[in-house]
Amino acid sequence: MSPTAPIFHFNQERSMLVEQTIERVCSHTRDSLHALNDAAYWETRRLEPSKKKRSQAELAEWRSLSRSLSRMSEPERRERLRALVATYVNDIAGNFDPRVYSLTTRILPALVTGLLAPGSLPKKLRHPLELLELEALADKVIVEGDTERLKGLAKQGTLVFVPTHSSNMDSLVFGFALELSGLPPATYGAGKNLFTNPVLSFFMQNLGAYKVDRRLRFELYKDCLKSYSCVLLERGYHSLFFPGGTRARSGAVESKLKLGLAGTGIESYVRSLKSGTERKVFFVPATINYLITLEAETLIADYLSEAGKARYIIEDDESSRLSRVIAFARKIFTMRGAVVVRFGTPLDPFGNAVDSDGHSLDARGRTVETSSFVRNVAGEVSVDADRDAQYTRELAQRLVVAYKKNTVVMATNLVAASCFEALRQQAPGADLFTLLRLRDHKLSRDDLARRVLERRDALRLLEKNGEVVLAAQLRETSGGDIVAQAMSAFAGYHTAPVIEAQGDGIVLRDPKLLLYYQNRLIPHGLAFDPDARPRKLEKTGRAVA
Amino acid sequence: MTPTSIGVLGGGPWGLALARAASRGPSVTWLHSRRQQDADVPGVRLTRDLAELANCRLLLVAVPSNLARSVARELGDHLDGSHIVVHGIRGLSGPELSTVSQIFREETPVRRLGALGGPVQADELAAGRPSAMVVASEFAEVIAAVCDALQSDRLQLESSRDLRGLEWASALVGCLSIGIGFAQARGDVSPGLLAALISRAVDEAATIVTAAGADENTFYGLGGYGDLLASMALTDRPEVVLGRALATGAKLEDARKQARLRVEAIDLVPRILAFAKAHEVRRPIFDAIGAILDGSSEPSVIVRALFRG
Questions:
Q1: What is the tens place of the pLDDT at every residue in B72-94?
Q2: Is B231 found in the same domain as B292?
Q3: Class of A98-406 per CATH?
Q4: What is the Cα–Cα distance from B134 to B118, expressed in whole angstroms?
């Protein structure tokens, strides 16, 4: 694509963007004493348990700040605040190198292999023929959805891509999907932990990623992050957010979203209106669907240990293990349609659908003036945090619906759901953990094929109503073939076999991974839902007359 | 017409009362009514043109519940995202039990929606006698606009962010009021038993409200319990009249006539029962009200069933 998107001029603009963000955060912060105290409190709490020298030095600094805060004059505090904000914003702001971008898009297939494997990349670069071979990734990643409409909207406003999140490969795969479909690149916030890998870090930095340090919990830092993201949107930088906040542990598409950063969509829109040049913001829901997921084993284990929240940042999963990444990449390259990225209908920041001209539409399809949603009773464009938070919640509801509708069902999901159903029938009424201990249950190929077909037909009905999408390979084929597709996808990547052929039957080896892959169908009511609580609305303890 | 003027839609007793209440404040109040008004409402300007009414940014809607969707659709052609629509309509529509605010969400571009509820009666409101009302919205801005428009030293407004809860509470109170009329008219229901029935009914309704995805506390507040208590004293509330008539052996058609105004709850009770059943909510009181309406049991049998809870 032609480099007209603002991100191609990022480096010229970087200092201006950073300066504007610092300015905004400092003027936002009304109570400097509170902001600094809050930061000192959270940072002290975070750093105290650490034995590292650097952390200890930082801790000492925070403690001394904390002690001297009350004695400081307001201008002194403001100065400290500004210095702190400047440090954070500079840390957050990334780079974008058009040369790296152009190189990357040409060699991205190789990059996906090499990216997380610093050792193998130089070798690959020395053997361009191998690279050429790998360019076949184009038919491994399939892009669906109305990309022509999105291209049109990209010229009229700022696109905010909000895909589902299940793997650390997501931002790379999504970036590649944008390139494949001729859409402009998008900037995105990536966890700082991902920047520790030198190669990944190099590319992420140069592709316009900015750093999000999830360890920093205080308001001032969050404000820096939000303001930076808002400034980028106002300047027309197409952006990518994962509204799930973190990779979905269970394997299901997200049903609850955190829209902290996406909430800046309304703010940037209102600011553009106030400055007299309306710049619309379009949210583009999307699903990223993998035949197999790089981190499936760690994610489902984490989900099952109910430590999902505690281990918000997983440092030691498959994406940090070289051999796993290489195995995953190899696998992906041998499978057609291994990843499907599907774009949904674009929405305005208030959750209304938009047409190809960027006009907001109400539920009956009437065109509505977009700015009317941010006008107060007096008819003036206004910033209203409470109102915008509610709009953002409503947007989140719309995204959840879009995720469900645009979920692309893969052979692995379909087969896993069918296997899990058989497992449950084997042990009626058993709880989840009992089911997971049922190893090596065997069922006949015919039985499994029949179950798969039944489910496929149920999905077809849903697909007719626009409630889900079937992967192309599942449409006109036999149950046995779908089982074979899933088996060949599982084989050779996961450390232990998920299901295995044995004589005329199929043995279910790993119920945990089956659970992971079947969970994708929970929203459609076609998979066992481990989180479904038995309905118990009856009040207890009431005396009956 | 200033942008902050208030528009009221609906020329029935509720609409007129809301227009009167709004006209006591500083804003200009407009009333849209299809009926020929007998007399001018002091301080209120009349219009028959929805486009003209849409010049007001705050709209209070008080039309019969069975007209809510068609009115919303027609009104929707004149509105945009800057309008605030607050309704005072008791009812849940269709088998899916859509709230009136959901209907407005489906039929208009308006997003800032709210509802009115609570024990206040149309005549009290119109006459300016002291009373209390609830306004609920997910938007603080909507609550503020309604308070500015209606709050006075004679009308106390409580606010709630649980819009869905208030809409469900209002509808359920309509159903339960039939039971109150019924029980009051029966010679074999003592005041003590009546009090017990009401307390249990509130509990049951709160559980249904929870199953509908709203906050049970909303039913324990002014929009549920408060509204229901008013039914005890309001002998001319249509639902109460209907219940009383049924208790004395009248057929449903006759009871309807005695109630004079349309009683939404007659059609609603079976749908609530289906909903409660699907959500596995225990519902002896609602079952009894269902039996009162369809005449499937003798009144004395129903009283015994109520007594057993």
A1: 999 999 999 999 999 999 999 99
A2: yes
A3: alpha beta
A4: 5
